């Protein structure tokens, strides 16, 4: 097999992952087009605060979790094919340990050398040097580690937990209202009062909200001194598996990063296929 043919075994799986990613993007857009989220407000009589809450939050279609898993499976397969071709390049096709070759992703730096030697036995020492530099373990390249962990959950245990979540909210309108209130107290001939006040969108990232988003979930509280300004909430589809993710993560952002990382790994190791 030529070096180009060996690399093609890897890149074809990455291309397939990208095709699944495009499908996932369409599925998420179709879900959002159904207007699955609605935000309402109510007043807390005890504190006078304005409470913003989800009055409607439809569950994500199961297809989103399934396609997310498809993307990850193709990426992990691409890495395993890369490992196989690297070993086969050294010991010949098929290698004697063909059924035991996998791309090594370890739970930590301490266990990585043994994991690498066991899963890629027969690879050239120079290949191991490149692998060591990639640090494919938790605490090293966490993107590769999360890919490995999430794929195992999806493949062996249960569908990945994809659901609706709030990513951020635009606080610009609330700030603008506060400033306008103060500006209104200035003399009528004040240049600032004549010019008016406009505050651009000011999106603030959020974390810690319950996942998945469900009707009745509180999103934000504003004090009585701020009134009840219009706040634009950025809602979307996130993934959250506590074993691999500390908090819900926007699913498309995470997968985009994983695709880019697998491409980078293939690029770093492609010269070893020559």
Descriptive report:
The protein is an alpha+beta fold and 274 residues long. It has one domain. Helices cover 47% and strands 15% of the residues. It has helices spanning 3-32, 62-91, 112-119, 125-134, 142-156, 172-183, 191-195, 251-269; strands at residues 37-43, 50-57, 162-170, 203-205, 218-222, 232-239, 249-250. Strands 4-3-6-7 form a 4-stranded antiparallel beta sheet. A 3-stranded antiparallel beta sheet has the order 1-2-5, with no helix packed on it. The longest helix has 30 residues, at 3-32. The N and C termini lie close together (11 Å). The model has no long low-confidence stretch (mean pLDDT 87).
List keywords for this structure.
alpha+beta, 274 residues, elongated, four-stranded antiparallel beta sheet
Please give a quick description of this structure.
With 274 residues, the chain is an alpha+beta fold. 47% of the residues lie in helices and 15% in strands. The protein has helices spanning 3-32, 62-91, 112-119, 125-134, 142-156, 172-183, 191-195, 251-269; strands spanning 37-43, 50-57, 162-170, 203-205, 218-222, 232-239, 249-250.
Radius of gyration, whole Å: 25 Å
What is the chain-wise order of helices and strands?
HEEHHHHEHHEEEEH
Oligomer: single chain
Strand line-up of the largest beta sheet: 4-3-6-7
Number of helices: 8
Mean pLDDT: 87
- Main structural class: alpha+beta
What is the domain tally? 1
The biggest sheet amounts to: 4 strands, antiparallel
Indicate the proportion of strand residues. 15-25%
Please provide the count of β strands. 7
Q: What gap, in angstroms, lies between the N and C termini?
A: 11 Å
Into which percent range does the helicity of residues fall? 40-55%
Shape: elongated
Low-confidence stretches: none
